[in-house]
Structure formats: C-alpha cells, structure tokens
Known about the structure:
Helix content is 21%, strand content 44%. The chain is of the alpha+beta class. It folds into four domains: 21-31 and 256-328, conserved putative lor/sdh protein from methanococcus maripaludis s2 fold, CATH 2.40.420; 37-46 and 176-254, Elongation Factor Tu (Ef-tu), domain 3 (Beta Barrel), CATH 2.40.30.170; 49-80 and 144-172, CATH 2.40.50.100; 84-141, Helix Hairpins. The chain has a six-stranded antiparallel beta barrel with strand order 2-9-12-11-10-13. It has a four-stranded antiparallel β-sheet with strand order 6-5-3-8, with no helix packed on it. The two termini are 43 Å apart. The model has no long low-confidence stretch (mean pLDDT 87).
Amino acid sequence: MKSVVIALATLLALPVVAEPMRVQVQSLQAQPTVLTTVAFGELEASRSAAIATQTSGTVSELLVVEGQQVAAGELVMTLANNDRAARLAQAKAALATAQAEYDRAAQLVERQLQPRSVLDSALSAVRAAEAARDSAQLEQDRAKIHAPFAGRIENIRVEQGSALGNNAEVMTLVDQAGFKAIVDVPQQAVFDLRVGADVSVLVAGVRQYTGVLSLIGQRANAQTRTFPVEVTLNGDLQGLREGMTARVEIPTGQAMTHFVSPASLFLNTQGQLGLKTVEADNTVAFYPVEVVKAEGKGVYVSGAPESVALITVGGGFVATGVEVVPVDGGEAL
C-alpha cells in the first residue's frame, strides 16, 4: 500500500506538458495594389461667366429666361437706344463733311492753290471723324448684349425696365459641355499627386465617372492645410449640376499588400497594429503592418513578408513565440 502511495505522489509531481493550441490559418501571397487618396468636394462647370453691361442704360428687351440654352453670340438682352443712334448719325455726318473737305483740299493742293499743310490738316480731321464714328458705333453695339459662348442661362438679376450702370452684372452663363470636381487634398498627400493622372469620381453618391487630374493648387488653405485640386470629368455629363457632391479617388503609387479581414488585425504590447502568423517551425510571429486601403469587407495592409500563413481563428489566444498547431482554413479546429 505504501508503495502505491509513493508511486501516485511521484506521478503527481511530474510536470504537466500542455499540448500546442490549434489555430486556423490561411496562406496569403502579397499582391501589387494601387494606393489612393480619397478627397471630397463638389462639382463646378468647367466654364462660367457673369454677363455684364459695358455701358449704362435701361433694359428694353430681356430675351432669355433662366435655364434656357443659348448659342455662342446669341443676343440675350438689349438696352434702350436713348441718343446712341443720334450720336452715331452725327458722327457719320461729321465724317462725311471732313472727307469732303479733304477732297477739296487735295484738289487745291494739286493745282498748287493751297499749301501742303492744309491737306495735312484736312487728313487729321478725317482721322478724328473716323475715330468719333467708330466710338459712336461701339457705344451703340454695346447696347446689345450677346452670350460669349454656348451654355445655360442662370441667375438673371434684372428685368425689363431696370436702369443699369456700366459693368452691371445681369445674368450668369454656364457652359455645361464640361464639369470639374474641386476637392481639398491633405498636404501629406500632395507629394504623390501628378497632373494628368486618371482618377475615379463618384458624383452624388450614385453615379461613377472617370476623370483626369488637371490642376494642383500651389497654396494651402491657412486653416485646414489642404490644397485645392481640380479633376476634369470624362464621359456623358448629361444631368450634372454645379454643387453636386464629388468623392474623388486619386492614385498615389503602388505597394505590395495583403488583403485581410479587420478581425485578423491585433495590437502588440507596444500598441502597434499587426498580423499574427505561423512560421515554418510552427511558432507564432507578429508583423507590424500599415493599413493602406479599405475596400468592401477587408483592408489592404503592407509591411508583412510576401508569403505568410495568417492566423484567422485563434489569434487572440496565442502569444508571439509560442508553438501552435496550424490548421487549414477549411478544417475544423
């Protein structure tokens, strides 16, 4: 009996060797991934202009309504003639008189009945009368306001009978043939931007377009330290309006990454984000990584070796350096 007790005590004193924990793994190979920066902004027409008067007067005809499409050079508004026509007629009459005086002087000089200086004075009078005629004609032409390019009329600010001064804005003309997305990009991302790069633009959260990065601002916003960036949209732009929201995804480079579930990411004791993997000797390793892109149900991370056996189940129960039994993702633990 005594020998049995001694044997049991000996067995209980022996160290208990725990079996390695089983973890589920997935073999991953790094793939080249296009890195992007995402910025938000709004649409603007590629070209818009405030149509303004170039002379003073009263609106006699308003020939367009808001939303109307007009052709380049189309008449959109006229100002009352007032005395413009009379001044033009007077200038033309003065020119005719000056020309007749010049012709008479030329005949007299040719017959040597007048000195050459008389002809020179008559020619100067003709040139002055021509300038006065041209000025009166220009003033009359300015009473007719034309569209400088084809587009849509917006924000009409006057009505028939309005009295206007010189350089008064009367309406806005928007060229709908082209649109651009104006977004603000953080200063850290500006180093990697390139004019001419192809970009992706999501408008109003529902319609996808391609575009080209056409301008990178040279001065940051003093408050936000962001730079304005313009992207010219391609494709069928029918239905777009200024002020629509735009989400722009701009390529900034390429990196070798792994696409993983966020559940596969862990923090080590130093607070670094990383992946837990199983090495060739079946021990757990931790590799700090950086999330470079999110997409769908996963994220792209860089910093891990090109080939890894990623722990997908059980990683929260094993520490770095311990031995485990790796099980393929399709097998039960």
